[in-house]
């Protein structure tokens, strides 16, 4: 195709393939396992929602709503938005479906999200999150449960080293209002020294100045009052319940009194798991309590707490992931062997052994392909093998070859099917096959 005609991907999107895809899939599969251990039910959510779902819940002045949403009018004239996060949609679903009858409801979701941001390493316009929510639980135990799950997930992904759980409280409504007033008073005294962005935040969203990265803001933000002096007794008791619960559950944490969240709906607990390995993109998992959100969207008053984590960022932190390989390559030596080859391949796959056929090029080329797949064995099937109903099996990793009659292979595979079920789902049982083949040939 001529260059001018070439179709390009949308800026900030990625085509995920190969090792990257394996990393991505690994994050999702570990999440799926761990969330079951904690009794979270999976949920599938629409990618499109009415724009109001996000505009009303995230807060008009937040980055996401004011400049990052993909919104459009559909053919029927309704304003639709590609979801920029999960929580608001899940709260909408809670109301639409009357899920109140199931509370406390523990939900887990994952999938693509869309934000119109400046793309850079670890920041995309279509990205993906795993997400966990506990809806209808107002006790600190729910926060602890949710954080314990996140902590176990990061450990099981093998990326907990260098990651710290930073914890803060934003208090209840009263605490937050009193703290906000004190912050405004403090920042007003230094208005002239603040960055332009923070001067604007002072009008709309003064809490956000606390986590500004601008060096002009830092000394002023660091000198700002903590929320502690403004916490009501209830808010204080709640936060103490979360802290002592985390200690009891063995989850390490550190207080960060500057931590605030980017969205307006948070109350009480706010937290981020932060790594020292990704520079400015260091937050790998974040969330908090959002007791007012369901009510804001027109539902019953419902306490809730949740978190989300970017799959791409978690995947970047993973060590080596195993790339699934083919256990056995079947090689038809000539055209007469084709049907037998298909038959053997089908038997192998039904026994839980991954198998692929090398059918292009001459025999030498086919053998080379088997080698390049890093398979355990190659089964070569030619005219002689078809006639004698017996196959030549080359052990590719350890060398040597065996002759195995078709009926014996059948029995062996039946036994192996059991082993495949018992083995971890998706794990290769190629080595087990090789061991059994060797036993067979020693008889
Ligand atoms: P940031 O301050 O990095 O913009 P945020 O507060 O907007 O983060 P959240 O809405 O809390 O992020 O989303 C939770 C997680 O989702 C982030 O910690 C990050 O891992 C991931 N994430 C957010 N935006 C993007 C993006 N544009 N591309 C990739 N991952 C993202
Ligand atoms: Mg953001």
Describe this entry's structure for a reader.
- The protein has 443 residues and is α+β, with helices and mostly antiparallel strands.
- 40% of the residues lie in helices and 20% in strands.
- The protein has 16 helices and 16 strands.
- The termini are far apart.
- The site of magnesium ion has 2 residues, from loops.
Termini separation comes to 61 Å
Strand content: 15-25%
What is the helix tally? 16
CATH class of the largest domain: Alpha Beta
Features:
8-stranded mixed sheet; binds magnesium ion; Rossmann fold; 443 residues; alpha+beta; single chain; 16 helices; binds adenosine-5'-triphosphate; 16 strands; BirA Bifunctional Protein, domain 2
Write the layout of secondary structure elements.
Elements: H1 18-37, E1 41-42, E2 48-50, H2 51-58, H3 63-68, E3 70-73, E4 79-82, H4 87-96, E5 105-114, E6 126-135, H5 140-156, E7 163-169, H6 173-189, H7 196-204, H8 218-222, H9 233-249, E8 254-255, E9 267-275, E10 283-289, H10 293-296, E11 304-310, H11 311-317, E12 328-332, H12 338-350, E13 355-357, H13 363-372, E14 377-381, H14 383-388, E15 390-395, E16 401-405, H15 406-422, H16 430-442
The protein binds adenosine-5'-triphosphate and magnesium ion (MG).
